Amino acid sequence: xxxxxxxxxNGLAILSLNRPDALNALSPALFVELRAHIDAIAEAxxxxxxxxxxxxxxxxxxxxxxxxxxxxxVAPSRHFQAETLDAIEALPQPVIAAVQxxxxxxxxxxxxxxxxxxxxxxxxxxxxHGKWGMSPTWGMSQRLPRRVGLLKAKEIMFxxxxxxGEEAARIGLANACVPRDDLMAQTIxxxxxxxxxxxxxxxxxxxxxxxxxNYTLADGLRFERxxxxxxxxxxxxxxxNFGR
Length: 244
Fold this sequence. Notes:
Elements: E1 4-9, E2 12-17, H1 28-42, E3 50-55, H2 66-70, H3 80-90, E4 95-99, E5 102-104, H4 106-112, E6 116-120, E7 124-126, H5 129-132, H6 140-148, H7 150-159, E8 163-164, H8 165-171, E9 176-178, H9 183-195, H10 199-212, H11 217-227, H12 235-241
Parallel strand pairs: 2-3, 3-4, 4-6, 5-7, 6-9
Antiparallel strand pairs: 1-2, 7-8
Helix pairs in contact: 1-3, 4-6, 6-7
């Protein structure tokens, strides 16, 4: 049984965490499969314009697989999981996380590596590093403050409290909170809306925004001017279709 399933449909790649009986706990073996899919999608910009990351069953993911840790299961390298999250963030294509049920700690870090997030009304987000006497290495301390702001991120991390789907949308952790039964339909609709636009522009926008965050405003503006890819190969055809 595949631990991560991939389904492609007309430019959209859907990656589904597939350990529903274990609430899609993030074992090293699951990460190996996820990384293989991410690496393949990165090379398929002509076939894939947008990606959805979701979880099969009741939860997106309950987080890092503590049973696998106890059993001595290890990833291929020391920072393999964190580097896999970096690879998701670095994908040329936009990535949307569709989150229902539990999204705790490592799985919250996984969701934060995605560009956008749609939460079901039963979604539950939390950083429980403190519950186990652990500290983040998969990006929580960097991505959560950039997503929700410094004060809110510290409060969520220090307390370990659960953030529901509605609050997640209110504080900017999620783009939207939708009924559980509508989660995938609305996430797919968002992705389809993106795919109607130029895939060239989608990739350029993501690259410029993400890399621009490494600079001050003045340097970021200079970076955009010097690194914008310019006109896409579909510009002329889109102009011809304008108004038709």
